[in-house]
Amino acid sequence: MSIARPMPSTTNETRPSLLASLLAPIEQELAAVSQRLQTELRHPDPFIDELAQHSFRLGGKRLRPALLLLTAQAVGEVNDSHRVLAAVVEMIHTATLVHDDVLDEADIRRHESTVNARWNNQTSVLLGDYLFTHAFYLASTLETTFGCRAIGRATNIVCEGELKQTAASGNFALGRETYFEIIEAKTAALCACCCQLGAHYSGASGRVTESLKSYGNHLGIAFQIADDLLDLEGEEHVTGKSLGTDLGNRKMTLPLIHLRDQLNQDQQQQLCQLIEQPTADNFAKLLDWLNESGSLQHARTVAEDHIDRAVAQLTDLPTTPALKAMQQIAQFVTRRNH
Amino acid sequence: MSIARPMPSTTNETRPSLLASLLAPIEQELAAVSQRLQTELRHPDPFIDELAQHSFRLGGKRLRPALLLLTAQAVGEVNDSHRVLAAVVEMIHTATLVHDDVLDEADIRRHESTVNARWNNQTSVLLGDYLFTHAFYLASTLETTFGCRAIGRATNIVCEGELKQTAASGNFALGRETYFEIIEAKTAALCACCCQLGAHYSGASGRVTESLKSYGNHLGIAFQIADDLLDLEGEEHVTGKSLGTDLGNRKMTLPLIHLRDQLNQDQQQQLCQLIEQPTADNFAKLLDWLNESGSLQHARTVAEDHIDRAVAQLTDLPTTPALKAMQQIAQFVTRRNH
């Protein structure tokens, strides 16, 4: 369920080129991965082919393959294992998006109809499974089990995070610590895995690999907080997806938790009512309240703190265009508007 | 959607011990795998733990791990790789069951409430994903990528089969060949994979491994035809799951395809109406028609033919209790009533 939002009075400019410009060091590699992904997802059955090609278009930022390839380049050289694994992580991310859209009952994603909106929930469930299993198969074509193991573990943690989030739905009293556990699992684990794989398959030491995994982890946490903020503050035509879905799904995010923790019992009751009846009017009231209480700013500050911690993991790497891009991407994730 | 069926006038005896007696040669191994599966699925989060333990109870016959272990024993000795992989294939099978129950909107499975009935569809989707990813992680703990690769490929084929089945829903004109393609993918591929893994990890030659994979494939095809027959002819309290779900989902199965292909256009129209309005009355009429036309018998004959082809793959194996069990299980799948 998404919220009826007032139309914006001015059209904000989208900035698809900002991230793209940061990815210049791996532009060609990323294009090759996109090509590989699209080829991998071709299928002789016309229905499966159409679905898989549609799911390919639901991706977009390609943040995860970018992290994997940049880490590879920051440590050494991109090789064919990296290219396979970059396709794998994007396929897995797409699988989780397709299943998320069933869970959120979302209609739009990246300006495209979601699979459940265009076909139905059943097709979404199966398409997600198809993408998951295809990704696991692809990972297993590498020489060792390292990639399969890292990806298997990370995706399992992603699912744990999503299950915990489901259990927390409608829990107005959700603890701050549990919120962080959830986002670290559902979002940061896969980002961390991407950086771990990039480093490992470039021959990085265990210590450097762990640092880069930690970079991915903090970046992922910041990314998710920024995403939760966009769900409140973003504009649907810029983000390219349904907004207010968190409220619609009665999901407590950091700004709401921060506001709640400042309030007395009566005020908490009021807040709870606004959250439970997310009409356009209540949504506007809620945004004002979150703004005045400094809760939106608080979430931004926490996200930026994680960005600082991410960047601090990069100090031992040689100065290269890839390193610079990793530093800039960290800044980008909290400042993006889509 | 399931069909309102008349209650049976007499209570048929269930036969849970028939398969169990066939599995005597691997009884202890199978118990160890069950134990391992249950331990693997323990989780510190109480919600995830409850869900995972519930899903464990949705399994039942443990046919897939049994095939893997028996094949292992028929060729050589059961080792720890087999035990891990037996837990993996059961976990994957359970994941597909959990997702199937979302697709079929089924309420009961193995006399237990399905996850979607007891919790909701969202939880089912995530639990299925959790089981899939856990299984893939577990497979990746083995030394080589062989297991990951075989399982990744087989589960991907299972998903293809399920997607093709979704595309075929409501297609009264579904071709016989497409029906076989679907069941070979959605059911037989994983059975074939179990036998392949059992043989490979016992050190079988490529030729023997291929023969045993083919045994699993034919057995799986027969199993699915028998399952489709049970959905028409079975009794809910014996099979332990909702019946008539195929009709409810407008799914053409072999008996219906056989009947349709004998009919003139007017009769086909009548058949189509019965299928599209599966009331208890229409269901009874349909069953009579399927019976009189020999269509139920035809499906049974085809299933038995696949059983013969399965058993023919076993001729080169030494005479052992495991071989005997594999021959008897082949007979069991077409004669079971649950």
Structural class of chain A: mainly alpha
Shape of chain A: globular
CATH architecture of chain A: Orthogonal Bundle
Mean pLDDT score of chain A, rounded?
88
Number of helices of chain A: 17
Estimate the strand proportion of chain A.
Answer: under 5%
Main attributes of the structure:
disordered N terminus; 338 residues; homodimer; mainly alpha; two-stranded antiparallel ribbon; Farnesyl Diphosphate Synthase
Describe the protein in words.
The structure is a homodimer of 338-residue chains. Chain A is mainly alpha-helical and 338 residues long. The N terminus of chain A is likely disordered. Chain A contains 17 helices and two strands. In chain A, β1 and β2 form a beta hairpin. In chain A, strands 1-2 form a two-stranded antiparallel sheet. The relative contact order of chain A is 0.14. The two termini of chain A are 20 Å apart. Chain A is globular, with a radius of gyration of 20 Å. Chain A has a single domain, classed as Farnesyl Diphosphate Synthase. The first copy, chain A, is 72% helix and 1% strand. At the A-B interface, α3, α5, α7 and α8 of A face α3, α5, α7 and α8 of B.
Task: Describe, in short, the structure shown.
The structure is a homodimer of 338-residue chains. Chain A has helices at 16-22, 27-40, 46-58, 63-75, 80-104, 115-118, 121-139, 146-168, 176-200, 206-233, 236-239, 245-248, 254-260, 265-276, 280-292, 295-312, 321-335, and strands at residues 108-109, 112-113.
